[in-house]
């Protein structure tokens, strides 16, 4: 728990536009990040509460997932996991926090298995119909690289479902914040076939989240040469 002085200092830094992430996260080492999250449970049991301001996010994610195998990155203590599990055949709940994953295991969901680690070193033995990363990318040290890596775990024709806070949220866990523009730019480099990006509003009609669905192509495309005039000229001669 943070002391009162730490909370006040963090609040002042946030209002001044400075970083408020915990020192362990700002140091950026695997060991410090793992230690930080292994000291806490990431609670998200409130997601099925219609009166909670986060509920619209859960509704949006659930609306866009159905059937097949799913990888949930950053599952926390399983608030979203227990909602997603009935909608898919099998779910792999992945998180860095051992205490959080223990609570997921205690739920005894029959089609759910847990996996612990950092996304930077995670290497699943299969691809998935769905990869869900809801309120995670803002926590990651290298979000662009992690998004590209996570998208590789989607099967051809599968989808990557992602949400992140829109703009400034005061949290000692957030290393990054995104606007519509920066979020779009990051996702456009993932290598998807199609992409749908938008805002998601909270119960007070504010644009609280950024959301996206990235679809992987069913097969590898032929090399794009539309911007190579010499290649176009060669093709015309064939």
Describe the SSE topology.
Blueprint: H1 4-15, H2 23-27, H3 30-38, H4 55-63, E1 69-73, H5 81-84, E2 90-95, H6 98-107, E3 112-116, E4 128-134, H7 143-152, E5 154-165, H8 180-188, E6 194-201, E7 207-215, H9 229-237
Please provide a written account of the structure.
This protein has one domain: Vaccinia Virus protein VP39 (Rossmann fold, 3-Layer(aba) Sandwich). Helix content is 32%, strand content 22%. The chain contains nine helices and seven strands; from the N terminus they run ααααβαβαββαβαββα. The protein has helices at residues 4-15, 23-27, 30-38, 55-63, 81-84, 98-107, 143-152, 180-188, 229-237; strands at 69-73, 90-95, 112-116, 128-134, 154-165, 194-201, 207-215. A seven-stranded mixed β-sheet has the order 3-2-1-4-5-7-6, sandwiched between helices. α5 (81-84) links the parallel β1 and β2. The termini are far apart. The model has no long low-confidence stretch (mean pLDDT 90).
Short description:
With 238 residues, this protein is of the alpha/beta class. It has 9 helices and 7 strands; from the N terminus they run H-H-H-H-E-H-E-H-E-E-H-E-H-E-E-H.
**Overall CATH architecture:** 3-Layer(aba) Sandwich
Number of domains: 1
Helical content (DSSP H or I, runs of 4+):
25-40%
- CATH level 1 class label: Alpha Beta
Largest sheet: 7 strands, mixed
The radius of gyration is 19 Å
H/E topology pattern: HHHHEHEHEEHEHEEH
SS-based class:
alpha/beta
CATH superfamily: Vaccinia Virus protein VP39
Distance from first to last alpha carbon: 70 Å
